[in-house]
Structures are given as C-alpha cells and as structure tokens.
C-alpha cells in the first residue's frame, strides 16, 4: 500500500460532506448534562433525529443502567441491531471506550459486529488521564478488524499518531473495505491543537488517497469545522466532543449540532452526503 505523505488538502469546494455524529462519549455525566443520550431508547431517538438532520454515520459509546460507560457485549450487540433497524446510518462502535477500560474488553467490541469501529493510533494524555493505545494493542485491534470485516476509522489525536498510522499500514496492509479513513480529534488537552493550521498540517501528512473527518473538542469545534470544510475534509460533531452550542448556551440536542454542520456544509457548497454515499466512499457494506 502506498503511504506517501502528499495528501494535500484543497481549498476548492469538493464533493458532498460526510457528517458523523458522536452523541454520547464516555466522559460526561448524565446528571450534569441531562440532554446526553444514555439509554437505548434515547440513543435510537437521537440517531433518527440526526439522520434527518444530515448525519451519515454514528460513533457509538453506550452506558449501563446507571448511565455509566460500559463495553458490555450484550448491550453493544443489542445497540448495533437497534440502530440498524431504526436507521440506515453507518454504525461505528468505539473501541476507545473509557480510559479505565481494559484492552481485552476494547478488543471484544468487534464481536458486536458493527459496520465500523474507531482505532486510535497511539497513546495520548487526555486531560488529567492517559488514553492508552500502545503499539501491540493497535496492531492486535487492526488485525482483528481485518478478520471480522469491520471498517476501521483511524482516530488521530496527535501528529505522532499519523506516523503510527503509516507504520501500521506498511506492516499490515489495507483495511477491510480497501479504503483508509481517518478522524482528526483536535483540541484535547494533551493532543494536537484545534485550529486551522493543525487541520491543514495533519491532513497533508495522511496516507495518499485517505479521506478524513475532523472534530474539535469544546470551543475548538467551530474553527475545526470551518477549516475542515475549506480543506476538503468531512465533519464529526456531537455531545461527546461539545456541550456548549455558543457562549453560555448549552447544547440542547445532538441533532442541532448536526443541523448546524449540515447548514455550514451547504454554505460551503458541499452538502451533507447520504449514508449510501458514505458507505460507497468508505467501503462499508450495508448489513441491514
Ligand atoms: N473516551 C476516550 C477515552 C474512541 O471512541 O475511540 C476515547 C474515545 C476514542 O472516545
Ligand atoms: Zn469516542
């Protein structure tokens, strides 16, 4: 596989924009953020609303009966099935989980048979915590995605993660589906900055032919979104990354974040793509 560093972003209006919604995450507390979807019903309702608003993919973390993050395999499997029944969204399960989850449980996420999964390309300081993704774990997870027929999305929190992605592809070849898709997760305290210069720098260093989305955590959400649209990237939005819509105004729902992203994509003359278009771009089979 070719892994040259010449994926130069373009400023010209490109094709349609894939919008991914990350509605829940593993860090937020439901009592502090009541609009956070944590039950299966809330998640399915959110997925339908976000689909209507322009999302093509959903990045899923689930919670247990006490609204605490969990990687329970039964719940994950039920969630994948429920989301597939309710929408045509690409269902991507998080293998990042929470910083406290074991490698074993994170690997087992693939047994829930999602369409896709996240695969973070290196360890990163994560606020006051450490999000652990050592090389042997990355390799094991990647090989399992190839064996299970799950399309990985390479989560890149730092420029060093881009180098690790090249190394991974050199060693193990192309992902299932044949296409490399990355997500720049920017503005995490400990990772790369969430600004236009970092978007351009990271995008330019990706493997030749890769597609990429970007998400800016917290107040970096809008600068990253504008930069990604201008540079030919896709968008990820959602309450996992952003709970303030504008200064002093909490996010009311994930759908309003997707709606805003779709409006900006329209303005950039890169309207939101359907999930069928996104599947074609990413090489994700429709298992519904
Ligand atoms: N919750 C973070 C520790 C992923 O979903 O793959 C990891 C995370 C990345 O959210
Ligand atoms: Zn996540």
Question: Would you kindly provide a brief summary of this structure?
Answer:
The chain is of the alpha/beta class and 288 residues long.
Structure description:
The chain is of the alpha/beta class and about 290 residues long. The chain is built from 9 helices and 14 strands. The protein has helices at about 40-55, 75-85, 105-110, 135-150, 160-170, 195-205, 220-230, 255-265, 275-280; strands at about 20, 55-60, 60-65, 70, 90-95, 115-120, 125, 130, 150-155, 180-185, 210-215, 235, 245, 250. The protein has an 8-stranded parallel beta barrel with strand order 1-2-5-6-9-10-11-12, surrounded by 8 helices. It has a two-stranded antiparallel ribbon with strand order 3-4. α1 runs parallel beside α2 (about 75-85), α1 runs parallel beside α8 (about 255-265) and α6 (about 195-205) packs across α7. The longest helix has 14 residues, at about 40-55. Bound molecules: (5S)-5-amino-3-OXO-hexanoic acid and zinc ion. (5S)-5-amino-3-OXO-hexanoic acid binds next to β6.
Structural class: alpha/beta
Percent strand equals 15-25%
List low-confidence stretches.
Answer: 1-6
DSSP, total strands: 14
Helix content: 25-40%
End-to-end Cα distance, whole Å, is 30 Å
The H/E string reads: EHEEEHEHEEEHEHEHEHEEEHH
Report the total helices: 9
Shape: globular
Q: What are the bound molecules?
A: (5S)-5-amino-3-OXO-hexanoic acid, zinc ion
Mean pLDDT: 95
Main beta sheet: 8 strands, parallel, barrel
